[in-house]
Each structure stands twice: as structure tokens, then as C-alpha cells.
């Protein structure tokens, strides 16, 4: 049996970040991934590095992680583009919530500014007329998640880690894991396999929130910011069975990514044409010029979500040296680096930079018992 300091299950952006952080601490790391590195929810993601302020714990983790992303701002593999985020208000009622949002972001160390209608159209002339203004978060950015996951895995391997590519963990053992080819690996285990987490840890509920994205041909300069409607959080964190929201991203290639949609509990990968139509109509309502662009591809992805919307980050009660990092829903890319640091600090017995209690997986077991 091979002995490791940490066995990471799953090489999406979260697992890759955990493996890189652990290997960077000098730990002997094994990484087990049955599919392509960054090939699941990571590959389907927009790659928007964004702070959501509607939940204090989520904001704290996002702000912490956004600071850690700065080390990769000049990394070619990250395809880092600091386009900023422009939140759009349709009317005065939506604009009225902006000062409170700016205050919450400022308390977390993030700069944002209110923009009136005149400033809004100076920033993004292609927006539909009649909007009230919005909020600009200039420091936010976009990255290319699958390539970044590959980079983090390569860094872990360069630091002495070992990748078990094409292998699946079939069983948690008292002192490690068993793989599908019969190999046994010994050491603390970190389960970061997204929607597959309940296969190894059935006590932790993780369910899919399916989304769809459209990417266009190259149209450089049509928009400059990641554009979202201020009601986006209602779709991202609401409990509606299906929802859509205006969310469009300029890629460094000149292409535009158009989102977003959510279907709760749907695990197939089929494209829903009615929901796609609804999503595009929502986007056209804010950016009419999109109607004239050529779409190249549509795809779906399955965001791993938890019942309370917060990720599981920490040691799993009653499981000995088994840890978990999963359930980030649509913020896995944004919070991957912060999640990794929290996990590794906890594993090494160090005091983390932010309070880890809101993400403690024990809350799921307590809720189940109640």
C-alpha cells in the first residue's frame, strides 16, 4: 500500500486547487480523477470571478478567494481578463438596493461604485435604452477554468504529487481509499468530486442545478464588462424549479458567453429548447444586438449544490481523517483557491484566514438529525 499525506478525490477546479495547495506545503499528494482534469462542472462554467453579497459566509469566502486569484492575474494559462462586473438596474427600485450592496462589498474589502444611467451607457452603449443605472465592480475578472485546473494539477505534480488518471475511488477505507483497479492508497482523504460526493459520503446531500450556456462567434468590442441583471441572485440562490437571468460575458477571444439558466434537481445533459429560448429572450431584452450574432455552440453543465447553498468545507464527522470540499454551486471557480486554503489550514491545524464554521459539513448531519 502506498502512503500519502493527502489523497484528493476529484480534479475539478476545487480538487485541483486543494492538491496544488497541499503539495505546495510539502505534503505527499495523490490525486484521483476518473475523467479529464477539469472536465466536469469546471469545463462547463463561465469562469466569472465574482463576489455575491446576499450571504455573509459566501461573501467572506468569495472575497478571500478573489484576493488569492490575484497571483494568477498575469498567468498565460489562466486567460485572466479583468473586465469588471457591471450589474444592471432596470428601474429606480432595483437601483435603490445598490448602496447597501456597495456597503457589504466594502466591508469585505471589495471596491464597487454606483453608476447612473448616463454612466451606464457610457460604459456599455449596446444596452437597451431606458435602464436606470447599476453597480460596477472594477476588480472582478474572468478566467478559463479547465485550463486553470490543468495548470494547478501540473503544479501539484511538479511538487511531487501523483495523479491516478482514469481511476475511480470505489470505497473509503479506515486508512485511505480503494481504487477501481484494486489498488489501495493510505492517508487522509479529501473528497472533492462535486455531484459524485454522495457516492462516497451519502450523509452529505449534493444535488444538481443544471445550467445552459451559449457561445457566439467572435465580435470583439461589442461589450467590455461581464453584464448581469441585479436580480441575478434571485435566480442563482432562489428555490424556483427553473429560472433564467441576464448574464453575458466578453471572452478575451472576442466571443460572447450568454447565460444563465437553472433547473433544480435535473441531472440529464440534454439541452432544454424552451428554457434556452427563455434564457436568450431574457438576454435580448437587455442587449438587443445579441439577436444579430451567430451562435456557435450550446452546452449544459451541472452545478453541485447543497440544501443551504453553502459548500461543505472541512472534516466529515464520524469519518476519521476524511475531509470534504464540495457543493459550491455556481461559485466553484471563484472560491476554489479560498476553499483550498481553508481545507489545508484545517488539515495542518492552523488558524484559517476566515471563520470556517459556516462551511462545516457537520451542519448537514445536524439538520438531518433534527
Structural class: alpha/beta
Provide the gyration radius in Å.
Answer: 20 Å
Instruction: Estimate percent helicity.
Output: 25-40%
Q: Percent of residues in beta strands? A: 25-35%
> Biggest sheet, strands in spatial order?
6-7-5-15-16-17-14-18
Discrete helix count: 12
Give the biggest beta sheet: 8 strands, mixed
Poorly predicted ranges (pLDDT <50, ≥5 residues)?
A: none
List the defining traits of the structure above.
about 30% helix; alpha/beta; eight-stranded mixed β-sheet; six-stranded mixed β-sheet; about 375 residues; globular
Question: What topology emerges from the helices and strands here?
Answer:
Blueprint: E1 2-3, E2 6-9, H1 13-24, E3 29-33, H2 41-44, E4 48-49, H3 56-69, E5 85-89, H4 92-95, H5 98-107, E6 113-116, H6 117-123, E7 133-137, E8 141-142, H7 145-158, E9 162-165, E10 169-173, E11 176-179, E12 184-186, E13 189-191, H8 197-200, E14 207-216, E15 226-229, H9 232-237, E16 242-250, E17 256-264, H10 273-286, E18 295-305, E19 312-315, E20 322-326, H11 332-347, H12 362-369
Parallel strand pairs: 1-12, 2-3, 2-13, 3-9, 5-15, 13-20
Antiparallel strand pairs: 4-8, 5-7, 6-7, 10-11, 11-12, 14-17, 14-18, 15-16, 16-17, 19-20
Helix pairs in contact: 1-7, 1-11, 3-11
Describe this entry's structure for a reader.
The protein is an alpha/beta fold and 370 residues long. It is 31% helix and 27% strand. The strands form four sheets. An eight-stranded mixed sheet has the order 6-7-5-15-16-17-14-18, with helices on both faces. A six-stranded mixed sheet has the order 9-3-2-13-20-19, covered by helices on one side. It has a four-stranded mixed sheet with strand order 1-12-11-10, with no helix packed on it. Helix 1 (13-24) runs parallel beside helix 7 (145-158), helix 1 (13-24) packs parallel to helix 11 and helix 3 (56-69) crosses helix 11. The two termini are 40 Å apart.
Amino acid at each position: 500500500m502506498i502512503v500519502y499525506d493527502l489523497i484528493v478525490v476529484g480534479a475539478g477546479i476545487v480538487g485541483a486547487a486543494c492538491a496544488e495547495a497541499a503539495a505546495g506545503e510539502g505534503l505527499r499528494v495523490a490525486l484521483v480523477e476518473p475523467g479529464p482534469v477539469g472536465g466536469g462542472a469546471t469545463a462547463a462554467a463561465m469562469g466569472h470571478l465574482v463576489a455575491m453579497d446576499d450571504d455573509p459566509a459566501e461573501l467572506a469566502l468569495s472575497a478571500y478567494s478573489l484576493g488569492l486569484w490575484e497571483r494568477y492575474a498575469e498567468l498565460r494559462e489562466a486567460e485572466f481578463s479583468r473586465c469588471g462586473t457591471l450589474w444592471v438596474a432596470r428601474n429606480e427600485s432595483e437601483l435603490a438596493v445598490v448602496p447597501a450592496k456597495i456597503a457589504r462589498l466594502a466591508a469585505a474589502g471589495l471596491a464597487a461604485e454606483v453608476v447612473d444611467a448616463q454612466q451606464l451607457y457610457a460604459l456599455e452603449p449596446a444596452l437597451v435604452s431606458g435602464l436606470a443605472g447599476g453597480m460596477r465592480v472594477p476588480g472582478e475578472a474572468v478566467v478559463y477554468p479547465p485550463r486553470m485546473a490543468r495548470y494547478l494539477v501540473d503544479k501539484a505534480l511538479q511538487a511531487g504529487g501523483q495523479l491516478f488518471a482514469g481511476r475511480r475511488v470505489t470505497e473509503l477505507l479506515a486508512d485511505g481509499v480503494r481504487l477501481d483497479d484494486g489498488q489501495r492508497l493510505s492517508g487522509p482523504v479529501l473528497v472533492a468530486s462535486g455531484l459524485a460526493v454522495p457516492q462516497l459520503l451519502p450523509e452529505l446531500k449534493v444535488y444538481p442545478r443544471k445550467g445552459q450556456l451559449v457561445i457566439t462567434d467572435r465580435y470583439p468590442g461589442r461589450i467590455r464588462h461581464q453584464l448581469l441583471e441585479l436580480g441575478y441572485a434571485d435566480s442563482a440562490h432562489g428555490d424556483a424549479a427553473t429560472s433564467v437571468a441576464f448574464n453575458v460575458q466578453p471572452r478575451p477571444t472576442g466571443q460572447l458567453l450568454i447565460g444563465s439558466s437553472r433547473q433544480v434537481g435535473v441531472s440529464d445533459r440534454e439541452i432544454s429548447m424552451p428554457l434556452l429560448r427563455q434564457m436568450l429572450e431574457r438576454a435580448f431584452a437587455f442587449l438587443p444586438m445579441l439577436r444579430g450574432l451567430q451562435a456557435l455552440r450550446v452546452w449544459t453543465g451541472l452545478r453541485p449544490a447543497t440544501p443551504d447553498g453553502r459548500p461543505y468545507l472541512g472534516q466529515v464527522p464520524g469519518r476519521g481523517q476524511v475531509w470534504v470540499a464540495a457543493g459550491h454551486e455556481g461559485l466553484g471557480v471563484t472560491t476554489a483557491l479560498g476553499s483550498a486554503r481553508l481545507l489545508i489550514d484545517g488539515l495542518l491545524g492552523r488558524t484559517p484566514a476566515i471563520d470556517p464554521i459556516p462551511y462545516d459539513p457537520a451542519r448537514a448531519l445536524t439538520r438531518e438529525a433534527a
